[in-house]
Design brief:
mainly beta, Immunoglobulin-like, 6-stranded mixed beta sheet, 4-stranded antiparallel beta sheet, 2 helices, about 15% helix, elongated
Length: about 200
């Protein structure tokens, strides 16, 4: 039995030696991890971004009010059976204003001044145009007055007049301009007017 015990011990010893040798041959590795800090650039906030300044929208020029206009007659020219009279508007205000469209005009007489006959009709051959009057600036329209004598007295019922009652475009208050004429109180329509145009028309 001794030889078997000795052999067993020898085998066990060899196995232990081999384990010991293997353990000694395996190196101990130490891994060092270095953490690199990366600076993150912050995105600019919305409050720091510049916004281009917007240009203010200019206010539209106001229409010319009757109280800031002076009305007058300008050039007059006779035609067959009628007369063409230039009506001028002057801006008395210290700010620009605009006129657009047709004035309303009537022949008038009496005290208080009262319209006689039919008011003017629009001359459809002239288109509306926006006219800007600078302070002291002018605009004009052309009024055609048909001769009342073209009609019989019974149809026209003529009446002498001394004024033109001129309502500027888009206004309600008339300007009274001296002009002697003859109106028809009856059915004939004697007055035709053009749309306003820049300048005095002379």
């Amino acid at each position: 039995m001794k030889p078997l015990l000795i052999g067993t011990l020898a085998v066990a010893c060899l196995a232990a030696a081999a384990c010991s040798t293997k353990s000694a041959a395996t190196p101990h590795v130490t891994v060092t991890v270095t953490k690199t800090s990366t600076a993150t650039q912050a995105a600019p906030s919305a409050s720091t971004q510049s916004t281009p300044a917007s240009s203010p929208t200019p206010a539209p020029t106001a229409g010319c009010l009757s109280r800031y206009l002076h009305g007058a007659t300008g050039l007059s020219q006779g035609t067959a059976g009628a007369i063409d009279v230039t009506i001028t508007f002057k801006n008395l205000n210290n700010a620009p204003c605009t006129l657009y469209g047709f004035p309303g005009i009537a022949l008038a007489a009496g005290k208080p001044v009262t319209d006689v006959g039919h008011p003017s009709v629009e001359n459809s051959t002239t288109a509306r145009e926006l006219v800007t009057l600078q302070p002291g600036g002018f605009a004009h329209a052309t009024l055609q007055i048909i001769d009342a004598g073209n009609y019989s007295a019974s149809v026209c019922q003529p009446e002498n007049t001394t004024w033109l009652a001129v309502i500027p475009p888009n206004q309600r208050i008339p300007l009274y301009i001296p002009l002697k004429s003859t109106a028809c109180k009856g059915s004939p329509k004697l007055l035709t007017v053009t749309a306003v145009r820049p300048g005095t028309g002379g």
